Amino acid sequence: MYGYAADFSWIAGKVQRDLTCSYLNFSDGRGTLWGGRIALSASTDQMGMLRDGDTIVAKGQLTRLAYGSCGSPSYVISSIEEH
Model pTM? Predict the structure, then answer.
């Protein structure tokens, strides 16, 4: 269920949404970058597809730019697959 490529070209995990941000939990957090959670950035259509608790594989890239209050770095999604 959890995992990621060494170059972060893909990340697999569970979506966590709150009122303003969406995150992907890609690890149990122990000894993992950013505690195993990263903010997501995607098109409105892609974000509309994501529900809290969904397990997905996201393909895209890391960005060091902050997207609002959701955090930096963020993961910019180019495609989403169900996991």
Answer: 0.87
Domain that residue 32 falls in: 3-82
Q: In 3D, which of 33, 68, 27 has the Cα closest to residue 47?
A: 68
Question: Would you put residue 34 in left (φ > 0), alpha (ψ -120 to 50) or beta?
Answer: left
Pair of tokens at residue 70: 């959701």
pLDDT digits (tens, 9 = 90+) for 17-31: 988 889 999 998 778
Express as a percent the part of the chain with pLDDT over 90.
52
- 83 pLDDT exceeds 80? no
Instruction: State the number of CA atoms in the 13 A half-sphere of 57 facing the CB.
Output: 9
Domains of the chain: total: 1
55: nearest Cα among 6, 22, 16 = 16
Q: What is the CATH number of the domain that holds 16?
A: 2.40.50.140
